Amino acid sequence: MTGLKNRCPGCKRISCSGCGIFQKLNTNKQVKIQFPENFQIEQDAGMGISFDVGTTTVAGMLWDLKDGSLLGVEAGANPQAAFGADVISRMQAAMEKEDGLKRMQALLVKKLDEMAQGMVEQAYAKERLCGEEISSVQDRPAGSGLCEMQGSKGGHAKKQKIERKKNAGIKKVTVVGNTAMCEILLGIKPAKLARAPFVPDYENTVRMEGKKLGFQFLQDAAFIVLPPIGGYVGADALAVYGCIKQTERNCGIMAVDIGTNGEIILECGEEKYACSAAAGPALEGGAISQGMRAAPGAIDLISLNGNFPMQDIVCRVIGGGPAVGICGSGLIDGVALLLRAHVIDETGYLRSREEARRAGAPEKLCRRIEEKSVSKLPKRRFLLTDEKSPVYLEAEDVRQLQLSVSAIRSGMEILLRKVNRKASRLDRIYLAGAFGCYIGIESGIAIGLFPDVPREKYVQAGNLAGTGAAMALLSKKAMEKMERGSREIIHVELAKESAFRDMFLEHMSLGGL
């Protein structure tokens, strides 16, 4: 077992950074969640599952419906990746390929079935281990048993007894996800979503027996797929909103879930707006010369070490081994650092060694700038690591990041205009999702991704979509609030906003306005 400790669970290679069979992705969807303090569970019999279905990652949690105890957790890759890495490719496959929709639905249903069965087996194993431990150590203090699992409500651990049934006693399942993934799961062809004006092909909560969707292990469970807010602002964003609203009351709040498709929700008093910003893949490591997801080998944090003028760059690598690439949080740190150090200017231009020296950049950073000719064209790049395992930040990488930053920030500013409010007047800005949890706030502000407001207003909240999905499972009242939210929140299509194009160009400047 020791020899496999740092190996990929899929291919078993030590150096793997996320191969095609790497099922346990490095995502904070696997991290324990915590419900809001005032959240009340409505007791029910049996067990339930909450699923968060993303384009890349699928996560599930098994719950005891009686007391809201967490019994099992599973996270893995969305098997629809064979049809394309992004939402647009999946929708095209559903629309154009023969049996494309049916095949993608079947892949996802099979995956969720397998995850459900895995969570139940996980819970059974805990129960068996619990019995063995209690029988052998009768005087063990309460709260120390190996069978105990962390419950989200109040953080107390407790033993769980599970009754075996054909479907393991799973009574109901809630599902959230982006609009396209929910439609594919339901077997709905995304005809309206794929074309302007980009509206969802379903509006309200969908309730259906598992067997009607093709489930086998979960065939008797009642499936509840939460509604989207509008367009590409899906049920996952609604779950984020529902989780935040459990705590917040009539104040200025903004929630930003950053990914390939950034989802932004703003509430100021009775005014509620939401939009989706096509940020592209750069913030998740895509479209970057040596970009990758947050997996072992990825640079996820960059800082300066030493005193001027002898400062040099230091990179943290996930897993502690040699660097093989850079993920989104590392990219933002790197560009912010090079901007402050005058290696990059506000337009995103990567300076030459001599230009950087004249601008006042530390000498060791200037020496890391390389320039060579590719097809008779100059290509400039910056060495982030050492030459034994080189990872470079190229000039084009900075441009890709600028496009993502401008899309997200412009979306935030458009919504703020709707309520005639400056970001400084917001009470809180929630950063949701795996990326929002790990991004450096100071670096995000430095490059203009986030507004420069007091840092205490930022809340890095983690997997709010998963938490909201669980709340909808465990409380009918919480689910009804989310359903009301889907009707009350006004969806804003950024492409139709006259100010969006000018604002997008303005926010291409690093450092924001």
Automatic annotation (TrEMBL):
Superkingdom, taxonomy of origin: Bacteria
Organism: Parablautia intestinalis
Descriptive protein name: DUF4445 domain-containing protein
Keyword Glycosyltransferase: no
Annotated InterPro entries: Corrinoid_activation_enz (IPR052911), Raco-like_middle (IPR041414), Raco-like_middle_sf (IPR042259), RACo_C (IPR027980)
Transmembrane segments: 429-451
Pfam families, A to Z: RACo_C_ter (PF14574), Raco_middle (PF17651)
Keywords annotated in UniProt: Membrane, Transmembrane, Transmembrane helix
RACo C-terminal domain location: 254-510
